[in-house]
């Protein structure tokens, strides 16, 4: 009978969910039948055993051995090409342990993480019902890391599941739509690891070594929060890094997709420094400094801090190699009580935008336009701001073919006045007679959630929306 318990893993991590049978050899939960192994890179297989136990891993004609030292063992499978036909992997031990994992594919594995917008399941997404009905796909698999905050008996993850109408409803909606497009366009097996937790801050997903650099705003915030007996334990430094992320580290992945920020919206400036360091650390932990890291910009909701955080996310994208940011402010225009702007149910376009970037930058479809306009520069001519953009694709346009909306200008960088804007060639010209000496322009910073019509509409002809921004003349 299969027994499961919590043990330390081979890298000295805090804990992993594990499974074993007769004998003392155990495997992390992330290794199960139906899993996808990452192609084209060495693949470590690891676990626990008593010192001196010989462990043999047999896979596709290879028998590789490891002797347990200090309670752990590891073997490394050589890099393998993508393979859509299922194979068997057997782990056996000199203590009598033997476990067979079946229907294993080789392809690309992506890790999805963040808070509730990544966690939102396919069953709760707009168009989710039709997506679930069409979700049968033997080449798409997923694994979900359990949300365990303490070291307790039991697994820390479910077994891998094959996408089907009976399994896909619990899948992350954003991750599903992303992976589905990658699988269908690239024709290879795709695996998803969902490691997300609603209502969490960036800092809980950061390693202790990342936070050791010192982040005073966070440290003051956390110290105050801990004085409250009701403080969410998940939102303490490195909590979920240790309790969730480490359970699947370093299971090889192709890259990361990330949807989080609501929990950090009040600390935008510190995010500009912290988040790139977190990305660097995750890449280091997985042994590849170039792993793609794709983030989702905050949705259409407008407390005063959210525009500042969106611009911080734009700054992170610009300054983090091999990254991308998917814009979402246009997707909750159908706002109503059952589609709150913090949790817009429109998830398919987000997965598509992330997939476009991966297809263009990871999978070599270089002719794809994968981003909407991103402001590049500003110059002042005759009391007008002339804005230039990257990622204009086939040209700038108003998404609804009406007058451009959502622009404001300022004479001091603090007080902003709504302004007129129009497209002139590859630029947008912004002006207002009320502000003759302009020093800053912003876009997409003021929204009225009761409006039936979006008050931002700059896009490119591929219908990808422009990112909100604030830009100063200096």
Can you walk me through this structure?
The protein is of the alpha+beta class. The protein folds into three domains: 102 residues, Immunoglobulins (Immunoglobulin-like); 254 residues, Rossmann fold, CATH 3.40.50.1110; 99 residues. The protein is 19% helix and 30% strand. The protein contains nine helices and 26 strands. Strands 4, 6, 7, 9, 10, 11, 12, 13, 14, 15 and 16 form an eleven-stranded mixed sheet that branches. Helix 3 packs across helix 9 and helix 7 runs parallel beside helix 8. The longest helix has 18 residues. The protein is elongated and about 85 Å long. The N and C termini lie far apart (69 Å). The N terminus is likely disordered.
């Amino acid at each position: 009978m299969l027994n499961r318990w919590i043990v330390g893993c081979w890298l000295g991590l805090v804990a992993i969910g594990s499974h074993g049978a007769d004998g003392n050899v155990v495997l992390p939960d992330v290794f199960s039948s139906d899993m996808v192994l990452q192609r084209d890179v060495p693949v470590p297989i690891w676990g626990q055993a008593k010192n001196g136990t010989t462990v043999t891993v047999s896979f596709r004609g290879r028998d590789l051995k490891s002797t347990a030292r200090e309670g752990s063992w590891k073997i490394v499978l050589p890099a393998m090409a993508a393979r859509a036909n299922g194979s068997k992997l057997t782990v056996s031990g000199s203590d009598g342990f033997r476990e067979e994992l079946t229907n294993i594919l080789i392809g690309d594995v992506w890790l999805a993480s963040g808070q509730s917008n990544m966690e939102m399941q396919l069953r709760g997404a707009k168009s989710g019902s039709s997506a679930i009905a069409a979700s049968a796909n033997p080449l798409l698999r997923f694994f979900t890391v359990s949300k365990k905050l303490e070291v307790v008996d039991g697994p820390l993850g479910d077994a891998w599941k094959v996408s089907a109408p009976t399994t896909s409803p619990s899948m992350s909606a954003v991750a599903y739509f992303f992976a589905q497009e990658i699988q269908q366009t690239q024709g290879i097996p795709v695996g998803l690891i969902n490691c997300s937790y609603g209502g969490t801050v960036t800092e809980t997903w950061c390693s202790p070594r990342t936070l050791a650099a010192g982040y005073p705003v966070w440290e003051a915030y956390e110290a105050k929060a801990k004085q409250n007996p009701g403080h969410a334990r998940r939102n303490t430094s490195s909590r979920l890094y240790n309790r969730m992320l480490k359970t699947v580290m370093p299971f090889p992945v192709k890259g990361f997709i990330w949807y989080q920020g609501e929990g950090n919206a009040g600390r935008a400036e510190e995010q500009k420094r912290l988040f790139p360091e977190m990305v660097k650390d995750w890449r280091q932990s997985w042994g590849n400094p170039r792993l793609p890291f794709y983030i989702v910009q905050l949705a259409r909701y407008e407390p005063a801090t959210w525009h500042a955080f969106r611009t911080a996310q734009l700054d992170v994208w610009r300054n983090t190699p091999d990254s991308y940011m998917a814009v979402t402010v246009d997707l909750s225009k159908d706002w109503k009580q059952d589609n709150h702007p913090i949790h817009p149910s429109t998830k398919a376009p987000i997965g598509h935008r992330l997939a476009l970037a991966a297809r263009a930058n990871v999978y070599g479809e270089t002719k794809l336009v994968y981003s909407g306009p991103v402001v590049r520069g500003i110059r002042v001519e005759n009391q007008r701001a002339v804005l230039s953009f990257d990622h204009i694709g086939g040209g700038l346009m108003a998404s609804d073919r009406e007058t451009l909306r959502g622009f404001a200008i300022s004479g001091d960088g603090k007080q902003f006045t709504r302004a007129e804007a129009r497209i002139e060639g590859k630029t947008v010209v912004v002006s207002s007679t009320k502000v003759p000496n302009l020093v800053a322009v912003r876009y997409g910073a003021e929204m009225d959630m009761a409006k039936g019509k979006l008050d931002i509409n700059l896009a490119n002809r591929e219908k990808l929306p422009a990112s909100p921004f604030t830009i100063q003349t200096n």
